[in-house]
Prior knowledge:
Rossmann fold; 2 domains; 10 strands; about 20% strand; alpha/beta; 6-stranded mixed beta sheet; about 290 residues; globular
Amino acid sequence: MFDFEKILNLPSPLEAIHEPVFEEMALKVFIKRDDLIHPQISGNKWRKLKFNLLEAERKNFKKLITFGGAHSNHLYAVAAIGKYFGFDTRGIIRGDELNTSSSITLQFADRCGMKLHFVSREAYRDKSRLLDIYAKDDHYVLPEGGTNALSLAGVGEMYDEIRSQLGYEPDYIFCPVGSGGTIAGLINTTNRPQIMGICVLKNAQYLENKIIELIKNKENLFDKNFKIFWDKHHGGYAKKTKELLSFISDFEEKHSIRLEYVYSGKMFFAFYELLRSEIKNNSTVVLIHTGGLR
Ligand SMILES: Cc1ncc(COP(=O)(O)O)c(C=O)c1O
């Protein structure tokens, strides 16, 4: 059995932050620092991959294959996992105009020994054909973004850490929504806090059905204990506004915590925006820092 967690900082810290407005509203606000789990296997990547890796190990797979774009955090983490835990890794990359030096992510993956296959955007859509060509039967397949049924259990462990670090269940949890695996894992695990998802993609309402499909504990859906905000994306995936960038640098200066603009920056920005309209006084809020910093 791999001792995966030997090199990881787990449980990740739960840190309180303070602001005059929190005091005024009698709020306790904490950040779950999953960004500190590991410099390269960061944040929700570890949470979503853990049970997939245990499954790969249980089934005796020595090779992993996955998919991603030139800047994919998931691809970066899988390449690092290959290096640290001795899996052979392959990545199928969206874009046949790219090469191993096209981005920091691809350069890193290449240095970790990941075999990279560059395919056209059209070919990229047909994942099962690509798997027939590149995976054969000897690769364990990790889905794009790392989200599948097994990834929910890892997110559930993160929630268990929060509950035992606080000694009680929080009233609200905020997380970014990209492929939907993280929020699905939270909803699957608890129906106590209100779970607030900040979607970082534009026009991505189709994700709601995908999230509901992923959830095994359907009874947790009856109370509709989650809300997803679809208009907090600042123009779309990986788009940024001046306001967002200045929020990120002010936040870092005030709290000494780095955010990035693709996921955590948008989520934290939205939290401050929604504070007075969505959060009841006298409550406890946990913001999940899902990493993504390099
Ligand atoms: C750093 C980071 N935060 C948040 C997310 C969004 O999580 P999910 O795709 O599970 O919705 C991602 C993408 O997976 C990510 O890379």
